[in-house]
């Protein structure tokens, strides 16, 4: 009983407090963490995926140059993946200021205006897009994906009231395209996490680390205990990344998509879902 109470406490509404802290640390006007890297927001040296974009020097040399130039963002990505391998996808669910922002805004949007992306097979789309992203970066065309990046749009939105240049960008054709992408797959998406689940390169890498740790039995993860589950399906409806499926009263969980948010833990009436190691 004690372990169940601890799990309930971790995955309660206090998750939103940690998201708010992440937004304060990473987004304007404070942007404390980017400033440590000598940047003003996440669209720069502190970006955990900009180091993918090869600008010059060939593939290997260019990637090495990027790691040195974007060392802070690369280190952040590495820390995220190591944490995920052992503890599950806590960055995505509890600390990511960008995914957290789209989720919070989505909760303010009436249900009739939301888009349900659960008809899409998330892993196939996610890894196909990730392959295109990496291939484009290797060919020197990674900047194309950067234009629609939520790590650019969200910080610019947060800083728009304070920085005129951000407002100018968001009203440009490229800015409007990025804003449309984030709005459709974030603000207007059911759960607010479709961009995270389908288009985020860091999310794709994170899901790989989570799945690898899951297969090795190392990662802490959210899982269902079949002996306690009655197949009511409440958890399926609560999942913001459509990682759960009800199959003949048996819950199937896609660990490559699950972000360890714990929403299913909160809604389960039989305490059949818990966070931990197998």
How would you sum up this structure, described in words?
The protein has 278 residues and is mostly helical. 56% of the residues lie in helices and 6% in strands. The chain folds into two domains: 2-214, no CATH class; 221-276, Alpha-Beta Plaits, CATH 3.30.70.20.
Please summarize what this structure is.
This protein is mainly alpha-helical and 278 residues long. It has helices at residues 2-10, 14-26, 32-36, 59-69, 71-87, 90-95, 97-106, 122-138, 143-147, 150-159, 164-170, 173-187, 194-198, 201-216, 234-238, 263-267; strands at residues 221-224, 244-247, 250-253, 273-276.
Label the overall shape: globular
Strand content: 5-15%
User: How many structurally independent domains?
Assistant: 2
- What is the alpha-carbon Rg in Å? 19 Å
Please describe the topology of this protein.
Elements lengths: L1 H9 L3 H13 L5 H5 L22 H11 L1 H17 L2 H6 L1 H10 L15 H17 L4 H5 L2 H10 L4 H7 L2 H15 L6 H5 L2 H16 L4 E4 L9 H5 L5 E4 L2 E4 L9 H5 L5 E4 L2
